[in-house]
Amino acid sequence: MPHAKIPRKSTNIDMTAMCDVAFLLLTFFMLATKFKPEEPVVVKTPSSISSIPLPDKDIMLLTVDSKGRIFFAIDNKLKRKALIEDIDAARQLKLSEAEKNSFALGASVGVPLAQIKQYLSATPEQQKAMDLATPGIPVDTVIHVPSNELDSWIESARNTNPQLRICIKADGDASYPNVSKIIKTLEAGKIFKFNLITNLKSVPPGTAAFIEANAPKEGK
Amino acid sequence: MAELDTSSGGGHKKGPGVKKAKKLSTRIDLTPMVDLGFLLITFFMFTTTLAKPKTMEINMPYKDPLMKDEDKNKIKNSVALTILLSKNHRIYYYEGIGDDPNKQPEYKVTGFKQKDGIRDEIIAKKKMVDDLKRQGALTAKDEATVLIKPDTTSTYGDLVNILDEMTINGVKVYAIIDISTIEQDNIKATEAANGGR
Question: What is the pTM of this model?
Fold first, then answer.
């Protein structure tokens, strides 16, 4: 008895469309990825169980390396421009327009104000070399004095953007007195709430935080 | 059909004198290219989400040079545990706030360890406060309080670790306070007593 022949279909699939989609997605992710701004120094942050993510905008970042040198940065190009103009006016640094733009586009700065003009007019390679040699932003145990430049920076930054959240990113090996000076400066500026940037580590089992995290949710 | 076919159409005509080259297949297998594409997508997807740093919120006590002494909070000796951070990640601790000038508390030494470290002491302190509350010696408002006093020889990592212990153990009341010279002397004395370690 003749039975109906099932036509043999090719098992080859046209991959072109799939390839297109793959590369479209790839392009999207590549463009959407924001590369983290180059850090002037390598900082190994300590770990904590805190899982609050760092806010995306309005952050002031105080980087402290293992030697206790302080670097200062805020986000947003426009705010940076406003900040350098504010500092320039307050300290009479006589910065040129190009130097101000260099600050607006740059990353963290860690040079004393006396050297900032020289720093901003230098090439990126020279800036890198200066970052290695710099003593960091000067900070003092006495607060409202010109020698406590960190205080001036923080004050100017808060003038330009009052919503700034202050984040301290310090190396685990930085000695406590160095960090303490920053905290004291912040306290003098009536800032009692700030964030410490840490790496995430898992909650040790059997502790109060572990029980809380794994407790069945009440209600619904 | 997992290939890109470029053979059909579009080829420009060759002149009469040109020899016909042997026709090779112009179909390319696209599978490895797709594989590579998705591999890169996965990589970028993971790196975008994982690179986000975490932060730890910290509230310092309100401080004002004009604040009067009577407005300041007093901590009961029985709820307090004082932790002193010292060099080489070593921790000294004692019960109470150590404000009695005539009788200095006994300093004990420990470290950040999984077992028999500072965590056990904090848990023990919390349990002790709970017991005292049950017995009626303390009111319900009282909480175990940890005073953190980092010495000048301690590191920022120690501070973050001890703050983390507070979250881990659910200590709600804690404060970072400057170390006093008496305490620094006591640490030195304890070090000497322990054989200069």
Answer: 0.74
**Is residue B127 situated within a structural domain?**
yes
Q: Which of B27, B55, B113, B148 to substitute to test the interface with A, most A CBs within 10 Å?
A: B55
Please check whether residue A127 lies inside any domain of the structure: yes
Report the CATH number at residue B177. 3.30.420
Contacts of A13 in chain B (CB under 8 A): 1-2
Structural domain includes residue B107: yes
Specify the pLDDT at position A219. Answer: 43
Give 10-residue mean pLDDT values along chain B (197 residues).
Answer: 54 59 76 86 74 76 66 71 85 79 76 80 84 79 83 87 85 83 81 68
Average pLDDT over residues A156-172: 85
pLDDT at A37 over 80: no
Q: Which domain holds residue B102?
A: 76-193
Domain that residue A94 falls in:
47-200
Based on the structure, what is the number of domains in chain A?
1
> B63 lies in a domain?
no
pLDDT confidence of residue B126: 84
Mutate to test the interface with B, among A29, A62, A63, A182 (most CBs of B within 10 A): A29
pLDDT higher than 60, residue A220: no
Cβ count within 10 A of residue A43 = 18
Task: Name the residue among B30, B60, B152 with its Cβ closest to that of A183.
Answer: B60
- What are the residues whose beta carbons fall under 8 Å from the beta carbon of A173, sequence distance 6 or more? A44, A66, B155, B156, B157
Query: Long-range pairs for A85-94 at CB < 8 Å and ≥24 separation?
Result: A86/A156, A86/A159, A86/A160, A87/A113, A87/A152, A87/A153, A87/A156, A90/A152, A90/A156, A91/A152, A93/A117
| Domain-located, residue A183 | yes
Number of domains in chain B: 1
Residue A106 within any structural domain of the chain: yes
Is B47 in a helix, a strand, or coil?
A: helix
Distance from CA of A203 to the nearest CA of B (A): 7
Residue A160 lies inside a defined structural domain of this protein: yes
